[in-house]
């Protein structure tokens, strides 16, 4: 199976930064499937409607994406097979032929408007700012306008015929990155070919929990290099301090097979009275 036979789900609509991340990872060789929510991306993957899904995991400014971790607390929602980091570069798009001096209104998602506040104050101080549902919706809205501009991803200029980029990189902060997880139905599922380089680090994502043990005891039993640790309440929790932890493990210098190392670590946690499940490996 190859080429257009592959389908990839992302948080829509077309032109969002989730779409940009998926496009950066898989390019034009796949068919893209719009989802209305992050949960719908997971559901499309788990039900084999698509071969892969791309979901946001963390933004460098706004932190972890709770909806993604809440889905990962549930069983049989897909398997993490990799990640992709997108540098968020806001662009100012207009209908082809519209000049900067013509612009009286700028549309975008509330967060994008806020992240470009300095640029807008300096260059379009007299323009009105209009909040819309998404950056992609802003791009669609200016397709028929001769005096409006949209703040959105550069991909929108490719998707929506008739738009052109007036300014690139207009965000006030240059360190705005979003990390996305790449999902597949199972660990063995065939993934679409990637058009971007694969990271050199070998990692796993595991879910840890215990009602009786503190996290330090669970990590001691795990006895592996933990590069990241996130916490959410247990789904069946009846009180405070009953949590599930998501640990990212990074392979050290050992020559033994990585999946064997992780499996043995999870067995140690279970033998000590904790709960552990592998959610991804890449």
How would you sum up this structure, described in words?
Pfam families: PDT. This is prephenate dehydratase. Pathway: Amino-acid biosynthesis; L-phenylalanine biosynthesis; phenylpyruvate from prephenate: step 1/1. With 282 residues, this protein is α/β, with parallel strands linked by helices. The chain is 26% helix and 32% strand. It has three domains: 3-87 and 176-184, D-Maltodextrin-Binding Protein, domain 2 (3-Layer(aba) Sandwich); 91-168, Periplasmic binding protein-like II (D-Maltodextrin-Binding Protein, domain 2); 203-281, ACT domain (Alpha-Beta Plaits), CATH 3.30.70.260. The strands form three sheets. Strands 1, 2, 3, 4, 5 and 11 form a six-stranded mixed β-sheet that branches. Strands 8-7-9-6-10 form a five-stranded mixed β-sheet. A four-stranded antiparallel β-sheet has the order 13-14-12-15, sandwiched between helices. Strand 1 (7-11), helix 1 and strand 2 form a beta-alpha-beta unit.
């Amino acid at each position: 199976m190859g080429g257009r036979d592959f389908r990839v789900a992302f948080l829509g609509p077309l032109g969002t930064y989730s779409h940009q991340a998926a496009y950066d990872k898989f390019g034009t060789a796949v068919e893209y499937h719009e989802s209305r929510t992050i949960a719908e991306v997971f559901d499309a993957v788990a039900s084999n409607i698509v071969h892969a899904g791309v979901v946001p995991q963390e933004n460098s400014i706004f932190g972890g994406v709770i909806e993604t971790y809440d889905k990962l607390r549930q069983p049989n929602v897909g398997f993490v097979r990799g990640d992709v980091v997108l540098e968020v570069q806001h662009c100012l798009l207009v209908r082809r032929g519209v000049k900067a001096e013509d612009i009286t209104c700028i549309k975008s998602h509330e967060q994008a408007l806020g992240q470009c506040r300095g640029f807008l104050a300096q260059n379009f101080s007299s323009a009105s700012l209009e909040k819309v549902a998404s950056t992609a919706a802003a791009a669609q809205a200016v397709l028929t306008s001769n005096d409006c501009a949209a703040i959105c991803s550069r991909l929108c200029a490719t998707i929506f015929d008739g738009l052109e980029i007036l300014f690139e990189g207009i965000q006030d902060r240059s360190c705005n990155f979003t990390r996305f997880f790449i999902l597949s139905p199972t660990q063995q599922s065939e993934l679409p070919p990637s058009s971007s380089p694969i990271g050199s680090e070998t990692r796993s994502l595991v879910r840890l929990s215990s009602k009786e043990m503190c996290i330090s005891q669970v990590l001691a039993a795990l006895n592996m290099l933990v590069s990241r640790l996130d916490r959410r309440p247990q789904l069946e929790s009846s009180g405070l301090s009953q949590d599930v932890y998501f640990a990212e493990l990074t392979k050290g210098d050992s020559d033994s097979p990585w999946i064997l190392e992780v499996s043995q670590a999870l067995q140690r946690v279970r033998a000590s009275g904790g709960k552990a499940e592998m959610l991804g490996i890449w």
